[in-house]
Design brief:
CATH topology of the largest domain: Multidrug efflux transporter AcrB transmembrane fold
Number of helices: 26
Distance between the termini: 20 Å
Length: 731
């Protein structure tokens, strides 16, 4: 691999104008495609095959409104009984009539006619049914419905819109600009010049621009979940900056050694570029592996992010060498300090830390394990769910509607369950529906049942069950299970079959399926890590150590997520919209993304150790040299990723915020505790055994030459002359 990347780096350096022109053309072409073919992203977290989704698909022809988007409009008065006052009633009825006439609205029943008034007379709920699917509702239609409620506002009533149509997710709020600013500062401090620091940022922008434009272009032909572009942006920025940082750092080291700029760029592309390609491959495989969960929206998110990583790798090994060609020896221009700081006594900080760890490997290992296990303890209480109106930021319209409904009607009115009664096999369908309603009404956790909606044939009915508890409560999940557990008994008693659907049941089903997918996905990821690292390092203990460290990072970061988002720790420091279950796909997404990112640091550090060991250095000295050579860059890379991911924590999106927090904590723990402490400690304890590889595998496992050993031998042979080169080549 190193030989091919060496040639590629030299070619791109020497043909820099052509390479730059190609990337500009690609950016323009993909941007034009995005402008021409971009469509709308989806807010629906659908999972085919679950009972709720299968039932919804089955009844959409019989009850078309169930397949269409809907929302709530909540009218509230300031005093008890105020909503029933004549002037308030006139204003609400006028507002509802105008909403019903708004474009895109199929129906908006009068809450006074349906009896949807709170017991204290403070509030009324109106249902707004649209004439199309949720993903097809336009912003103009949503805004028109809101504007139609003006008579109620003019009468002094509080009006708030909620429900699926107004629970908007994954909105990027511009916080990533803060992360980029921090990343820029880290790059300047690490590389020491504005020119060198600008190259990783520039290449990251190009990579993210191409990836995001391509994703938008595809959104017109494929259903892409709204979270997918945000994840692609998050991951693309982080790896794009980091990969370029690895190569630029190695290039500047070669320049300091006296190499010509073109040779320095080619060798940097060969060695650091090999680590970048291998690290990128692990990220792509891990993200694409999200398809193992068999959840379509999660698969789309994984493929979108993996596409951004592929582009970041291609930019790093082609465009970056070209830009290094334009910079030439001026890469250190515009320095941020006039004189290099004096090296502290005992050597650089990275070297001193490495020697400390190597001298005391067992205490460092035990201390690191104790810290990670303590941080991981809350993960045992992990509870999964999907965000709804209650997860929206305080002060938003959807959150106001959710809170008003919960306060005036009870939390269960925010978690209605739709029970589909199929009475086609019953001798008396009407009595069968009534019998089902009576039995469900006796179940623990049911607050009330709304009157059934029956189809034209009278053989299929919808029963809306209102629980005692909200959508995130464990008792609501237990109630869904209890209702489904009545199926066989109801068939025997009434001849009718029941199925449970609705948004609340669908979210519970999705969370259950994602929770079940975690163990097999983790096994797949661990297997992939073992194979790739064995291929990269030709070792048995190194892959085992890496997987163990990865599992520690995952559990520790999940523990932090549970403590903050499920238990409410750090409330006030981090603006968590609503403490409750963790977003159901955060753990599996964390595993996929963090696996690849953790392997970045593993490859960069351990490849440096192996490179020194291959060149004859003693095992512990090789560990010190590997950490010394990679500590500054790995530290900078980790801080950049933490800054980029952490910048999304201070937004208010209920999905993006915990993803950003989980990844920021995961990278922080993995880089500074696992890779910079536990890895060198374990490698020091392993000694020469770290590089043991069975002879039976030596013959079948291909040599990747990530350290550039074969390349250096070829270059040395070429330098001795043609005759000697041919001899060396034959050898």
């Amino acid at each position: 691999m190193a030989t091919y990347l060496y040639r590629l780096g030299r070619y791109c350096y020497r043909r820099r104008r052509a390479v730059l022109a190609v990337w500009i053309a690609v950016l323009i072409a993909v941007g034009g495609a995005a402008g021409a073919f971009a469509g709308k992203t989806s807010d629906e977290f659908k999972v085919p095959g679950t009972e709720a989704q299968t039932t919804l698909d089955r009844i959409k022809d019989t009850f078309p409104a169930q397949g269409h988007g809907s929302g709530q409009v909540v009218f509230a008065a300031g005093s008890p009984g105020g909503i029933a006052a004549p002037e308030a009633r006139r204003a609400v009825e006028e507002a509802v009539a105008r909403i019903a006439a708004a474009p895109g609205v199929a129906a908006a029943p009068d809450p006074y006619a349906t009896g949807a008034l709170s017991p204290d007379g403070r509030a009324a709920i109106g249902l707004v049914s649209f004439d199309r699917k949720l993903g097809d509702i336009t912003e103009e239609q949503r805004d028109a419905v809101k504007a139609a409620a003006e008579p109620a506002r003019a009468a002094g009533l509080t009006v708030a819109f909620g429900g699926d149509a107004y629970n908007r997710m994954a909105q990027v709020e511009g916080g990533e600009a803060v992360g980029l600013a921090v990343a820029g500062v880290v790059l300047v401090v690490t590389l020491g010049s504005l020119v060198a620091a600008g190259l990783p940022l520039l290449t990251a922008f190009v990579g993210v621009g191409v990836a995001m434009a391509a994703l938008l272009a595809l959104s017109g032909s494929f259903e892409i979940i709204t979270t997918a572009p945000v994840l692609a942006l998050m991951v693309g920025l982080a790896v794009g900056i980091d990969y370029a940082l690895f190569i630029v750092s190695r290039h500047r080291r070669h320049l300091a050694e006296g190499l010509e700029p073109d040779e320095a760029a080619a060798r940097a592309n060969a060695t650091a570029g090999s680590a970048v390609v291998f690290a990128g491959l692990t990220v792509v495989v891990a993200l694409a592996g999200l398809a193992v969960a068999d959840v379509p929206f999660l698969t789309v998110m994984g493929l979108a992010a993996s596409g951004a990583v592929v582009v970041a790798v291609l930019v790093a090994i082609t465009l970056l060498p070209a830009l290094l060609g334009f910079a030439g020896r001026s890469i250190d221009r515009l320095p941020v300090r006039r004189r290099a700081p004096k090296a502290p006594r005992g050597g650089p900080l990275g070297e001193r830390w490495a020697r400390f760890v190597v001298r005391r490997p067992l205490p460092v290992l035990l201390a690191g394990l104790a810290a990670l296990i303590t941080l991981a303890v809350p993960a045992a209480s992990l509870d999964l769910g999907l965000p709804g109106g209650g997860s929206q930021a305080a002060g938003t319209d959807a959150r106001k509607a959710y809170d008003l409904v919960g306060e005036s009607f009870g939390p269960g009115f925010n978690a209605p369950l739709v029970v589909v009664v199929d009475a086609a096999g019953a001798p008396r369908p009407e009595q069968a529906v009534q019998g089902v309603a009576e039995r469900l009404g006796t179940l623990e956790g049911v607050r009330t049942l709304l009157p059934p909606t029956v189809d034209a044939s009278g053989r299929t009915a919808l029963l809306t069950v209102i629980p005692e508890t909200g959508p995130d409560h464990a008792d609501t999940k237990a109630l869904v299970s209890d209702i489904r557990g009545q199926r066989d008994a109801l068939v025997a008693e009434t001849g009718a079959r029941i199925d449970v659907t609705g948004t609340t049941a669908a979210n519970i089903d999705v969370s259950t399926k994602l929770g079940q997918a975690l163990p097999p996905f983790l096994l797949v990821i661990a297997g992939i890590a073992m194979v790739l690292l064995a291929l990269a390092f030709r070792s048995v203990l190194v892959p085992l150590k890496a997987v163990a460290g990865f599992l520690l990072s995952i559990t520790a970061s999940l523990g932090a997520v549970v403590a903050v988002y499920q238990w409410g720790w750090l409330d006030g420091v981090i603006d968590v919209p609503k403490v409750g279950p963790v977003v159901s796909f955060v753990p599996i997404l964390l595993i996929g993304v963090l696996f690849g990112l953790a392997m970045d640091y593993e490859l960069f550090l351990v490849s440096g150790m192996k490179e020194q060991h291959v060149h004859g250095m003693a095992p512990r000295d090789a560990v010190v040299a590997g950490v010394q050579g990679g500590a500054r860059v790995v530290t900078a890379a980790a801080l950049i990723m933490v800054a980029v991911f952490g910048s999304f924590v201070f937004g208010h999106d209920p999905i993006v915020q915990p993803i950003g927090f989980a990844l920021a904590v995961g990278v922080l723990v993995d880089a500074f505790v696992v890779r910079m402490a536990l890895v060198p400690a374990a490698m020091a304890l392993f000694g020469r055994a770290a590089w043991w590889f069975p002879k039976s595998l030596e013959k079948v496992v291909p040599r990747v030459d990530m350290e550039g050993e074969q390349l250096m031998a070829r270059l040395a042979a070429e330098a001795t002359g043609p005759a000697e080169a041919r001899v060396a080549e034959r050898v």
